[in-house]
Protein: L-threonine 3-dehydrogenase
Organism: Streptomyces corynorhini
Amino acid sequence: MKALVKQQAEPGLWLMDVPEPRTGPGDVLIKVLRTGICGTDLHIRSWDGWARKAVTTPRVLGHEFVGEVVSVGDAVRDVAVGDLVSGEGHLVCGSCRNCLAGRRHLCRGTVGLGVGRDGAFAEYVALPATNVWVHRAEVDLDVAAIFDPFGNAVHTALSFPLVGEDVLITGAGPIGIMAAAVARHAGARNVVITDVSPYRLELARKAGATLALDVSGTDIAEAQRLLGLKEGFDIGLEMSGRPEAMRDMVANMTHGGRIAMLGLPAEEFAVDWSRIVTSMITIKGVYGREMFETWYAMTVLLEGGLDLTPVITGSYGYADFDAAFDEAATARSGKIILDWTV
């Protein structure tokens, strides 16, 4: 089968013929239809410091996908041939304290699809049935392909109650934009999102942000003034991993404010912890999705009319992966889709 492979420990990707994945009695074999390009994939392509530590070559990339089930193992009961499915890209041990307690998203032994094991940038991918999400309701294929990052946005945005709250999102990447759409849909009063890319800020406006703020020229305090806020933001969603964004967020939170952090910093940085203590701010780290409560919430949000199409800005056949990755790496794109049927 054709697959997009990190064949060598150097920058670049290779489209290659590789064997179809093997499956066991508890596994599902899926014919891949569409995949989404993630920031993780961009890191692996560029072969940066994180990728060199996290990935062993050769490795088939990809963890955002939708496909059709073509075979199931003898022990599989709840997934059938012909089902349209996406997959939870975090594979857990099943035996640690958190897994046994049903908190699988907190497993210390998590292995990432397309990072620690071969992934979905291929004509076929294999997954344990326990990692497969069957789309029981009608869903656009491009949207189904990005259920993984959509889950990141939902898990982060719904970390705290949003109804009537003023929400600040730092970082208008695709997940930040999706989080803005979720927050508005879930009943937030105001949703302010910050970035320095005019293109992505415009995408955020289309997705429902109350105010999309270019912080290269306007500070967050000005956003408060424009919206008539007196005491700061109630909820913060940090999506950028940038030190200055986190510091600005802390400085603009109300007393008792709550912050969920999904953005992954490249290195350690200083934070005004005295401000966090004296303002009684709660900070929650978010990694991945809750399995499978977040997936259920994602489906319900879409059924309730949440529109993710503004965040999808490009689609390529898989053979044109270089052009697709080049576009995904710019600040003038949202989610980029690879079509594995052409």
Q: What stands out?
A: The mean pLDDT is 97. The chain has twelve helices and 18 strands. The first helix runs from residue 39 to 46. Residues 66 and 87 are 7 Å apart (CA to CA).
